[in-house]
Amino acid sequence: MGNCFRTDHQPILSVCLENFTIKYPIGRGGYGQVFKVQHNETGQIFAMKEMKKNLIITKKSVPTVMNERHLLGLLNHPFIVNLHYAFQTRKSLYLVVDIMSGGDLRYYFTINNRIRSEEALKFLAACIVIGLEYLHNNGIVHRDIKPENLVFDCNGYLHITDFGIARNSNDDNSYICSGTPGYMAPEVLCSQNHGAEVDFFALGVILFECITSLRPYIGKNRKEIRDAVLDKQAKLDKQEFLLWSSECLDFINRLIMRKPENRLGANGIEEVKGHCWFQGWDWVKFGCKTIESPFRPKNEDNFNLYQVSKKWEVSYERVNNLNSQKLFAGYLFDVTLFRKDSSDTRSVE
């Protein structure tokens, strides 16, 4: 397990499992566990995502996993979770990324139920907006913005993670219906071609949920949620939410518009940043992370302990043949190969 596995035509990089000391598990994914680790040479702390190859193949998720690895190898921004290393053994894939010790937004909801301060809500929204600005400017639609995919760093800033179903905004996406139904835009639920507007819709759903503890369109399954979307336009009424400003409610209501052409952000990210709710907001100072966050974590690690402690049990077929291993060719990555004068030069621009 410790030796770096090499598929055909791949370079052998210096990084492998032995280069890290595993501290303890901090989360679970769809294909395995996530660990807090320390790089033995540099002493840096990271999160290491372990994914079982057999389970990935059984779930027919090879394209999703390889897509995420490809995009992470191109992206680098202060408001996303960045990739540092990727390697594999015969049985597993490993992604070594920025550690986000503040936990995810869903975990915050489980503890605090909802956001109670408008300034805190605006801070949260601004984090997501800046992350989306970087992605959209580089032609990428995330397509799965939700509380579980928004994680706090130790200073309380949110970062976007999980790029498995992200796509190029210029591609025909009408055949792609994957995502999380409660946060999926109507055009995705109805199998229509879609672009960056779907991420703005998801942002609106999250902010709606922050205020009400409910999503604007609910149902037991995708069909029920789609029917709810088609039945009536959701809206936050000022008379019902007296503690929130009209500008805040308008911002959210315009994000969750059912028709993408009517949605805030349909004319670009500047339309979102220029909304009156953000009047006077110092985007430059915020982008440099010099504004104190209202979400400062109190502990070193803020993870869902119940989720972490659950026993990992999977049932899948063995698959160790060479043809199956070739499915993961090109997975290796070492960020130090992209560094010049101690700066990361990755970009998709």
UniProtKB/TrEMBL annotation:
Protein name in UniProt = non-specific serine/threonine protein kinase
- Name the GO terms of the biological process aspect: intracellular signal transduction
Q: GO molecular function: any one? A: protein serine/threonine kinase activity
Keyword ATP-binding on this protein? yes
What SUPFAM superfamilies does this protein map onto?
A: Protein kinase-like (PK-like)
Catalytic reactions of this protein: L-threonyl-[protein] + ATP = O-phospho-L-threonyl-[protein] + ADP + H(+); L-seryl-[protein] + ATP = O-phospho-L-seryl-[protein] + ADP + H(+)
The answer to whether the entry has keyword Nucleus is no
Residues covered by the Protein kinase domain: 20-278
Q: Which residues form a coiled coil?
A: none
Q: Name one Pfam family in it.
A: Pkinase
Q: Where is the AGC-kinase C-terminal domain?
A: 279-343
Question: Which InterPro entries does this UniProt record tie to the protein?
Answer: AGC-kinase_C (IPR000961), Kinase-like_dom_sf (IPR011009), Prot_kinase_dom (IPR000719), Protein_kinase_ATP_BS (IPR017441), Ser/Thr_kinase_AS (IPR008271), Ser_Thr_kinase_AGC (IPR050236)
Residues the entry annotates as binding ATP: K49
Give the family, as the similarity comment puts it. Belongs to the protein kinase superfamily.
The alphabetical list of record keywords is: ATP-binding, Kinase, Nucleotide-binding, Serine/threonine-protein kinase, Transferase
Tell me the domain of life: Eukaryota
EC number(s) given by UniProt: 2.7.11.1
